[in-house]
Recover the amino acids of this structure.
């Protein structure tokens, strides 16, 4: 049995369920990416080839990609799996590591691996989520970007609770459309950490389908909503959220385009690209993006409980462009943003 998904502008045909929930019934349409599990476990030993991506933290290489002499690319997730992308960019096979958790492998295939493929193809990929909102006669998108644990999925869930429709979670792919920027439809569910368990329970009680993902998070299907049946709306803003448990009021600051491009470079979906062409292209795309879409830093009063009024304040701020009481906010570790 195979599973076919229309996500991120790709038709993906996989022999394992990636839980992307954007099913395709047209069997005649050729797949853009065919993903298959290879028999057996991956080979032991280091990867040999030109390193194009390497993410190292605390002395451990969490993932690494190498380009082989014949043009194939192998992406290794430490202790989990290897994924090999063929030279045509349309076929891939994956092998679990000895003793690797296959549930985690599925999460990585659906997220990090697809993000790698899209970036390698030349698309603009951010670590983020996006939601469509309809207010009166206006439809607009709001994106949330940032590092893991900054509350992107939680913020997307809160906007869905307020009547929005999920466009994507975890992998945010953007296209220019006229003077605006439009997110591509991606994953139809959000994966929430334990800190948002109460929010997950609330939406599940209200009818949202829920499951436990391979990385032990609560996965909620939130794609249904007022935006169903039409293309995603252009983004009104990208928001970098910072959970704030010490203040009761939402605090928002708009970055200059230069600050925004540099800040977004620091929160990629896949970190530490070693391929110069990828890095140059990504920065050029961010410069073009931030000239078209406002980028906001938002200190968000955090739960649980997660307050409805805070979400409405954020939506009103984004849709009107009004930043009452704005102050200069600099994300931790980014004091050099905007400096020479």
């Amino acid at each position: 049995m195979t599973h076919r998904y229309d996500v991120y502008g790709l038709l993906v045909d996989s022999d394992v369920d990636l839980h992307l929930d954007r099913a395709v019934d047209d069997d005649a349409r050729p797949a853009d990416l065919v993903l298959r599990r290879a028999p057996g476990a991956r080979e032991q030993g280091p990867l040999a080839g030109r390193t194009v991506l390497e993410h190292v933290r605390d002395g451990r290489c969490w993932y690494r990609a190498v380009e082989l002499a014949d043009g194939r690319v192998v992406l290794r997730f430490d202790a989990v799996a290897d994924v090999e992308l063929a030279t045509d960019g349309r076929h891939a096979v994956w092998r679990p590591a000895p003793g690797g958790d296959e549930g985690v492998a599925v999460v990585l295939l659906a997220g990090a691996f697809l993000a790698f493929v899209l970036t390698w193809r030349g698309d603009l990929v951010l670590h983020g989520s996006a939601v469509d909102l309809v207010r009166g006669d206006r439809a607009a998108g709001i994106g949330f970007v940032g590092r893991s644990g900054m509350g992107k999925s939680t913020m997307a869930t809160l906007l869905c609770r307020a009547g929005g429709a999920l466009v994507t979670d975890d992998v945010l792919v953007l296209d220019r459309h006229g003077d605006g920027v439009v997110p591509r439809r991606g994953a139809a569910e959000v994966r929430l950490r334990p800190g948002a368990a109460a929010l997950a329970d609330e939406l599940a009680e209200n009818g949202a389908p829920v499951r436990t993902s391979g990385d032990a998070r609560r996965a909620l299907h939130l794609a249904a909503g007022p935006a169903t049946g039409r293309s995603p709306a252009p983004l009104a803003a990208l928001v970098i959220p910072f959970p704030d448990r010490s203040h009761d009021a939402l605090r928002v600051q708009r970055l200059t385009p230069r600050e925004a491009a540099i800040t977004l470079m620091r929160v990629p979906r896949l970190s530490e690209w070693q391929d110069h062409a990828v890095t140059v292209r990504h920065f050029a795309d961010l410069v073009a993006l931030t000239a078209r879409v406002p980028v906001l830093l938002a200190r968000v009063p955090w739960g649980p409980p997660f307050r409805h009024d805070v979400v409405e304040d954020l939506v009103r701020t984004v849709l009107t462009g009004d930043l009452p009481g704005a102050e200069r906010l600099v994300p931790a570790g980014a004091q050099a943003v905007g400096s020479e």
Observations:
- Residues 325-340 have pLDDT under 50 and may be disordered.
- The CA atoms of residues 144 and 155 lie 7 Å apart.
- The first strand starts at residue 3 and ends at 7.
